[in-house]
Design brief:
four-stranded parallel beta sheet, alpha/beta, 15% strand
């Protein structure tokens, strides 16, 4: 067990069916955990786009949530669903590949997650390399209240 030497923690996961649950669930987890515990929400950018208002709640309630937005500028989960549709049915959703790609990209316009977070009152940092991410995570974990890190993957 790789977590054997870690401090006590809980790991909550989504098993499917609720794209964008992470920001909202992190609010509930932080309220339940109380001020003495940190909540870290690992969230893809496509799912985060479903519920950015959770950042405002985190700021208003001064919740100790660190949101890490894994920004690949794609709705990768929807691409996976399309792939499964092509594999598991006669319904060929790939007849219009350019339309399909346009519907699953978040690159035009690209979402600036640091500005979104700051607009909701949440301090934010952008990390474009592992060292930058480590620095941003250290600062976020030392700060009281919410933080967001945009981890640029693409």
């Amino acid at each position: 067990d790789k977590s054997a030497g870690c401090s006590r923690f809980q790991h909550l996961t989504l098993t499917g069916g609720a794209i964008g649950l992470g920001p909202c669930a992190s609010v509930g987890a932080a309220v339940a955990a109380g001020a003495s515990r940190r909540v870290v929400n690992l969230q893809a950018d496509g799912g985060a786009a479903y519920a950015p208002q959770a950042l405002w709640t985190q700021a208003r309630e001064r919740l100790n949530v660190v949101t890490v937005v894994c920004a690949n500028a794609r709705y990768a989960i929807l691409e996976l669903e399309q792939m499964m549709q092509r594999t598991n049915s006669n319904n060929d959703v790939s007849r219009e590949p350019r339309a399909s790609k346009r519907l699953t990209t978040l690159a035009d316009p690209k979402i600036d997650w640091t500005r979104v977070a700051e607009g909701f009152g949440v301090p934010a940092a952008r990390a474009e390399c592992p060292e930058g991410f480590a620095r941003a995570l250290k600062r976020a974990l030392e700060r009281n209240g919410p933080s967001l890190i945009e981890a640029v993957l693409a």
